[in-house]
Amino acid sequence: MNTFATQNQKKMQKKIDESLLKDRSPRASLSAGFRLYTEHFRRIFKSTWLTALIAAVVSGVASTALYIYWPGLVARVYSDLPHAWMYAREYMLLLGIIGILVLLAIVAITAFFGSGAASILRLQKEEKVSQWRMIGRSWKALCCNAVLCLIAYGAIAAFVFWKRDMLLNPLQNIVSVTATVVLLTVVGIFLLPTIYITVKYLMDRTTSFWPLLARSYGLSMRYWMRQFIVLLVCLIVLGLFHLICSTPEFILSEANWQARIGVVGGDPLGMPSYITVLTFVTCSVITFLQLYIWLPMLFAFYYLYGAIDSREASRKMKFNAQPPELPL
After folding, report:
1. In 87-237, where do the E strands start and end?
2. How many distinct helices (H) and strands (E) make up the chain?
3. Model confidence at 18: pLDDT above 50
4. Cα 116 versus chain centre, distance
5. What does the alpha-carbon distance between residue 117 and residue 23 come to, in Å, rounded to a whole number?
6. Beta-carbon contacts of residue 327 (< 8 Å; ≥ 6 apart)
7. What is the pLDDT of residues 24-74, one digit of tens each?
8. Which of 24, 83, 136, 243 is placed for a possible disulfide with 307 were both Cys, Cβ 3.0 to 4.6 Å?
C-alpha cells in the first residue's frame, strides 16, 4: 500500500514539475500565474491572511504617523528655513519612530510575500512546506537585495555628492541631472535580473543567495527582456487596480495634509476627533487589499522562472546531443 502511494506521489510530482518546467512566453507565464492565483485563491488566502493582517496593521500605523505628523513638520521647516534645524531636532524622535515603523512595515510585507511563496509550493508540489522557513528566506532575500541596491545607488549618491558644485551650477544643471538619470536607469537595468535570482532562491530551498547570484546572473541577463515584459505588464495592470483601491487613502491623506498645515498657520484643525482612528482603519484595510492585488505578480514570476530553467535545460540538451567534430 505504501509502495503504491509512493509511486502515485512520484507520478504526481513529475506531472507538476513538467507543468512548471515548460518553455513559456512572457504572456503564457502571466496567464498561468494569474490562473493559478485565481483558481486557488481560497487556499492562498487561508494560508496568508495572518501575515497580510500583521503587515496591514503595521503599515496602517506607519501611514497614520506620516499623514498626521509629517505635514506639520514640513510646514514648520518651510515657514522658518533659517531655523529649520531647531524644528528637525525637536521632531528627531518622531522621525526615528516613523522610520522604524516604515522599516517594520517593509519587513511585514516581505513576510507576506514569503508566505505567498510557501502557498505556491504547497499548491504545486503538494508537500508540507514550513511557512516560517519561507518567511525567513524572504527576509534573507530582502537583505541581500537591499545590500545590492545600497552598493549600486550608494555609488550614484557618492557621485552626485562629488559633483554637487556642478549640480548647483545653472549652466550645467541640465547636463548633470541628465547624467544622473542615465546612471540610475543603467543601474536599474543591471539590477533587473535579480528578479529571477530572487524567485529561484525562494523556490529552490537548497540554494544560497550569493552563490546563486554569482552562478546565475549571466543566465538571468540573457532573459532580461522576458523579465522586463512580465514586470511591465504587472506594473500596468496591477498598478491600475492599486490606484483605484488607493483612492480613499489619497482623499484622506490630502484632507489630513491641508488640515495639519492650516494648524501650523494658526487655523483650527477642522477635522473630527476620530480622524486618527479613521485614518488608521482606512490605511490598514486598503493595505490589506493591495497586498492581494500585488501577490499575483509573484505567481507570474514563478512560472517565468520555470520557463527560463526549462529553456536552459533544453538548450543544454541540444548542445550535448550534437555529435563531436571528427578530426580531418
Report:
1. none
2. 12, 0
3. no
4. 13
5. 21
6. none
7. 889 999 999 999 999 999 999 999 999 999 999 999 999 988 888 777 777
8. 24
